[in-house]
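Consider what follows.

. . .
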Amino acid sequence: MKQACSLGREMVEAMANGLAKQVSIAGELSHTMLDQEQPQAFELAFCLGEMEAADALVAYARLVDRPFEIQLATVYVALVLQRLTQTLTFAKSHFGILAHQIKENPAVSTFVEQSLHPSALSLLADELLEREIYLGGHFGLHLQHFEVRELFARFSDERVAPLANHIHRFKEVLPESLLNDMAELGVLDSPFQLSTVATT
């Protein structure tokens, strides 16, 4: 997985360097040229975000060292690499990348193929379905955190949701009773003063 992440970072770096050359004049970034390449800039930002998320998920999986989290990280890294490969296969010219600049790595290709094999995904799905709650893993949360999350979710569903559409649609102020209840629940983080809302 480490080799796969390294290759993913190299691919994103190649995209960034290629795009930078396309939108620069004499080594200086041209905002006008960058504006003309917005789809590529968005794609680069998206791929970079996915790679950062993959690195973070791998780091977390290594930290907790549990099979389920490791398998989730493995699948996500494989999905990110699959998408990066597709982008560079079909849109490399959009980033000013030449064919010889993309190095194939058989080990990484095998990693992606095995990680996304239907049988591997099926095993992961079965484990997800066997879990009673919190399908995404624990992510360092303790029981108290789950209870608080459930409390806030229930409050949102029962008290906020029924009013939200009307308040948003007609640009009305939140009812004082709702704000008081939110303050009591601790949603507002600090002691709540209605006078501060009125003046902001």
Summary: Residues 191-200 have pLDDT under 50 and may be disordered. The chain has nine helices and two strands.
